[in-house]
Amino acid sequence: MALIERREAVLKIIIQSYIAVAKPIASKAVAGDYDLKVSPATIRNDMAYLEEEGYVTRPHPSAGAIPTDKAYRYYVESVSREAGISLAEQYLIAALCQEVEAAIEQRLRLAASLLADLVQNVAVVTQPRTSQCYFKHIDLVALHDFLALLILVLSEARVRQKILSLKTRSNQDELTSLATKLNSAYAEMNSDEISAAKVELSPQQKQVTACITDMMAAESKLGLGRPYLEGLHLMLSQPEFANSPRALNLLGLFEKTDWLESVCSPEPEQRGIRVIIGQENRDEAFQDLSLIIGEYGVKNGAKGIVGVIGPKRMDYTRAISSVDCLSSLLSESVAEYM
């Protein structure tokens, strides 16, 4: 439901003030610090209306107002997404990223660090990856008569290893010959194509092929690449987490390997920058936080995630603009490397 212009102005003042000071905002502060050209009584009535409609809450009846998830959602949908960071900051980010003439991993680490500094919260950037991986080549190294190390190289320079218990005794020459045949037969195929390929195979070649397809299928199920996380200390220094057990809970949460997948899974209809506020998060552990999630990469190719995680009381315009800027720059970097 749309608010009348004055009540919308009052709500924005409450949100922006709370973002700045992290304390409940009193009606006299709204009336005294901002020229709304209405009486303090009108401001109190407007704040009472906002509370009744669920946009603000109060710790107790005589306290000031605190924005709710509903208020932040209204605010995000109504503010400009273009004025969060200055042109000078955008040029600085671009210049720093372009100076890194090194592997894409180093650019991603720098991007996460820059983003954390910009928003003073947690920043995360994942390595780009395609939803489907492709076979490049294998090496087989004899370890024992019936034991070999399978080294599988996939698209995007992903390398995976597995110890194979062979059904027949094999020496290194035999394993090298086997690998050469499979490298020629399966080049640039995905796991489904390898399974469907009409290649005449010995029992041992079938065993190795089955291992390859299992490893590739498991790799394709991994939705996101390796995450680079920066700025955790910046978020935990915010008033919401000072001397709070929530800080320890969050530290434990970020140590889990699958935390990012649980909060970043995109909805099919969602595109562009996504803002997930409080209880909109699927994972209960993140329902005191907000996330700004963007995607970068190349069309129909490798893609990654760039995002900001912080308290609901965050500077949304700055966070959204920063994520948008870095998404564009990282897309250019991926285009160079892929």
Q: Can you summarize this structure?
A:
The chain has 338 residues and is α+β, with helices and mostly antiparallel strands. The chain has three domains: 5-78, Winged helix-like DNA-binding domain superfamily/Winged helix DNA-binding domain (Arc Repressor Mutant, subunit A); 87-130 and 224-337, 2-Layer Sandwich (Beta-Lactamase); 135-221, Enolase-like, domain 1 (2-Layer Sandwich).
Quick tags:
338 residues, alpha+beta, Arc Repressor Mutant, subunit A, Beta-Lactamase, Enolase-like, domain 1, 3 domains, five-stranded antiparallel beta sheet, three-stranded antiparallel beta sheet, elongated
How would you describe the overall organization of this protein?
It is built from 13 helices and ten strands. The chain has helices at 5-21, 27-33, 40-52, 69-78, 87-99, 104-119, 172-186, 191-196, 203-221, 232-236, 245-254, 259-264, 316-337; strands spanning 56-57, 66-67, 122-126, 135-144, 147-154, 158-165, 227-230, 274-277, 289-297, 303-311. Strands 7-3-10-9-8 form a five-stranded antiparallel beta sheet. A hairpin with a 2-residue loop joins β4 (135-144) and β5. α5 (87-99) runs parallel beside α13 (316-337).
